[in-house]
C-alpha cells in the first residue's frame, strides 16, 4: 500500500488533530466536496429516462443527505427512521422498500413524501391494501421480483437464489392479478434490486435489459400502464483492487442504448444506488497503538476496529488503506516498527474477528502512525456494533 502523498481532507484533519490533542486519533472523515462532484457526475451521465435515487441505508448521515439533496431525484428508504432523516433535509420523493414493513410504518409513510411502496410479498400486499382502505387512499406500488436467473457474480445476490426479498418470479403473475383485484392498490411498476457490489458493468447492462423485457411482457399481458422499472442498486466498489473500479461509463452507455432501443415504450428507469455514491467520500482514520510479532506474523493494533468499521470483518476482506506517517514519538523508549513485510491490522476489541486488514504488504509501519481506511463512506459506521467493549465512539468530521 502507498503512503498518502497529496493534501486531502483527511490529511488536513490529521494535522489539525495532532497539533491539538494527544489522545490517539480515531475518526470518520468525510470529504463533502468529493461527494458532490461524484454524485453530480453520476447524475449527468444518466440518460433522461433515468431517475437517480440515493439508497439511504448506505449512509444516512445528515451532512451527506444535505450534500446529495440538490443532486438526486429522490431517496430510497427502508424504515420510518430513514423516512424521518430524509424528511428533515428534503422534500424530494421517496421510495419505501424493505422486507419487514410494520403497519405503523406504512401508515406513517403515507403522511410523508413517499411516492412508491415496494411490495415484498402477498401478505404485505394485503396489508397495504387494508391500511390504504382504512385511510381512504390508493397506494402506488412497485412489485418486487426475485428473478429466476442469477444476474451477476457479485458477493451478495438476491436473484436466482431463495431469499426473504420480493416474490419469486414464478409467482409474479399471481401477484399482479391479486394486486389488480385490490381496490386501494395501484400497480405502477416493478422493482428488481438483485445484487450487491457487482463489479461487472456489462453484466449490469444485461441485467437492466432483462428487467425491461420482463416488465414489458407483464405490462402487455395485464394491460398495465407503462411501468416504472426500478433496477435497484448494487454497483460495486473494488475493495480488492481499487485501481480497477466498476466501469461506470459502460453502464451509462448501456442505459443510453436502452433509452434509444425502447424509446417508443415511454419507460422510466429508477436507480437507487448506495455504496457507489458514498463509499469513496468517507475514510476511517485510526492511530496505530501497537506493532508486534506473534507466531512469526506481524500485527498492528489500532485505536478503533470492527465496532466502528465492521465491513471488512463481515466480508473477511482487507479494507483498502494507506499509511499517514507520524514522525513525532513521545516516549523515551524504542518505537515498535516493521518494514518491507506483510501485516494484519486488528482493532482494540477482545476477539480475533476484529480484523480490518489481512496480511497486506507495507513498506514501513510504526506505532503512532495513522492508518487511513479508504472507501469507508458506505456501510461503515451504521452497520457496526458500536458499543461492544464500551470504547469511545470515533469522531465524525465533515469537511
Ligand atoms: C432495495 C435496495 N435498494 C438499493 C440498495 C442499495 O444497494 P447498493 O448500496 O449496493 O447500491 C439496497 C441495499 O441493500 C437495497 O436493499
UniProtKB/TrEMBL annotation:
<feature type="domain" description="Orn/DAP/Arg decarboxylase 2 N-terminal">
    <location>
        <begin position="35"/>
        <end position="279"/>
    </location>
</feature>
<comment type="similarity">
    <text>Belongs to the Orn/Lys/Arg decarboxylase class-II family.</text>
</comment>
<dbReference type="InterPro" id="IPR000183">
    <property type="entry name" value="Orn/DAP/Arg_de-COase"/>
</dbReference>
<keyword id="KW-0663">Pyridoxal phosphate</keyword>
<feature type="domain" description="Orn/DAP/Arg decarboxylase 2 C-terminal">
    <location>
        <begin position="28"/>
        <end position="377"/>
    </location>
</feature>
<dbReference type="InterPro" id="IPR009006">
    <property type="entry name" value="Ala_racemase/Decarboxylase_C"/>
</dbReference>
<keyword id="KW-0456">Lyase</keyword>
<dbReference type="Pfam" id="PF00278">
    <property type="entry name" value="Orn_DAP_Arg_deC"/>
</dbReference>
<dbReference type="InterPro" id="IPR022644">
    <property type="entry name" value="De-COase2_N"/>
</dbReference>
<dbReference type="InterPro" id="IPR022643">
    <property type="entry name" value="De-COase2_C"/>
</dbReference>
<dbReference type="GO" id="GO:0008836">
    <property type="term" value="F:diaminopimelate decarboxylase activity"/>
</dbReference>
<dbReference type="InterPro" id="IPR002433">
    <property type="entry name" value="Orn_de-COase"/>
</dbReference>
<protein>
    <submittedName>
        <fullName>Diaminopimelate decarboxylase</fullName>
        <ecNumber>4.1.1.20</ecNumber>
    </submittedName>
</protein>
<dbReference type="InterPro" id="IPR029066">
    <property type="entry name" value="PLP-binding_barrel"/>
</dbReference>
<dbReference type="Pfam" id="PF02784">
    <property type="entry name" value="Orn_Arg_deC_N"/>
</dbReference>
Amino acid at each position: 500500500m502507498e503512503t498518502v502523498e497529496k493534501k486531502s481532507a483527511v490529511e488536513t484533519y490529521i494535522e489539525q488533530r495532532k497539533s491539538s490533542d494527544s489522545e490517539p486519533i480515531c475518526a470518520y472523515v468525510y470529504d463533502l466536496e468529493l461527494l458532490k462532484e461524484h454524485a453530480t457526475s453520476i447524475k449527468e451521465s444518466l440518460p433522461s429516462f433515468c431517475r437517480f435515487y440515493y439508497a439511504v441505508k448506505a449512509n444516512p448521515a445528515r451532512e451527506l443527505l444535505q450534500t446529495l439533496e440538490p443532486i438526486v431525484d429522490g431517496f430510497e428508504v427502508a424504515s420510518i427512521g430513514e423516512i424521518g432523516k430524509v424528511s428533515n433535509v428534503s422534500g424530494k420523493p421517496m421510495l419505501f422498500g424493505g422486507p419487514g414493513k410494520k403497519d405503523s410504518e406504512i401508515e406513517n409513510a403515507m403522511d410523508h413524501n413517499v411516492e412508491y411502496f415496494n411490495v415484498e410479498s402477498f401478505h404485505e400486499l394485503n396489508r397495504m391494501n387494508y391500511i390504504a382502505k382504512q385511510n381512504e387512499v390508493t397506494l402506488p406500488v412497485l412489485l418486487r421480483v426475485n428473478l429466476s436467473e442469477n444476474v451477476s457474480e457479485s458477493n451478495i445476490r438476491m436473484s436466482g437464489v431463495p431469499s426473504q426479498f420480493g416474490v419469486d418470479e414464478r409467482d409474479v403473475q399471481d401477484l399482479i392479478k391479486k394486486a389488480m383485484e385490490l381496490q386501494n392498490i395501484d400497480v405502477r411498476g416493478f422493482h428488481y434490486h438483485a445484487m450487491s457490489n457487482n463489479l461487472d458493468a456489462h453484466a449490469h447492462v444485461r441485467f437492466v435489459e432483462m428487467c425491461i423485457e420482463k416488465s414489458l411482457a407483464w405490462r402487455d399481458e395485464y394491460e398495465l400502464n407503462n411501468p416504472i422499472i426500478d433496477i435497484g442498486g448494487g454497483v460495486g466498489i473494488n475493495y480488492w483492487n481499487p485501481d480497477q473500479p466498476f466501469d461506470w461509463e459502460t453502464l451509462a452507455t448501456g442505459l443510453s442504448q436502452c433509452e434509444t432501443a425502447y424509446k417508443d415504450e415511454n419507460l422510466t428507469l429508477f436507480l437507487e444506488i448506495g455504496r457507489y455514491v458514498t463509499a469513496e467520500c468517507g475514510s476511517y482514520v485510526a492511530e496505530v497503538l501497537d506493532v508486534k510479532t506473534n507466531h512469526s506474523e506481524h500485527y498492528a493494533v489500532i485505536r478503533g476496529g470492527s465496532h466502528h468499521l465492521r465491513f471488512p470483518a463481515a466480508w473477511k476482506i482487507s479494507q483498502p488503506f494507506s499509511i499517514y506517517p507520524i514522525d513525532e514519538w513521545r516516549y523515551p523508549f524504542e518505537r515498535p516498527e516493521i518494514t518491507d513485510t506483510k501485516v494484519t491490522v486488528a482493532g482494540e476489541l477482545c476477539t480475533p474477528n476484529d480484523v480490518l486488514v489481512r496480511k497486506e504488504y507495507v513498506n514501513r509501519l510504526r506505532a503512532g502512525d495513522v492508518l487511513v481506511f479508504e472507501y469507508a463512506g458506505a456501510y461503515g459506521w451504521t452497520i457496526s456494533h458500536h458499543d461492544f467493549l464500551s470504547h469511545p465512539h470515533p469522531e465524525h468530521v465533515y469537511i
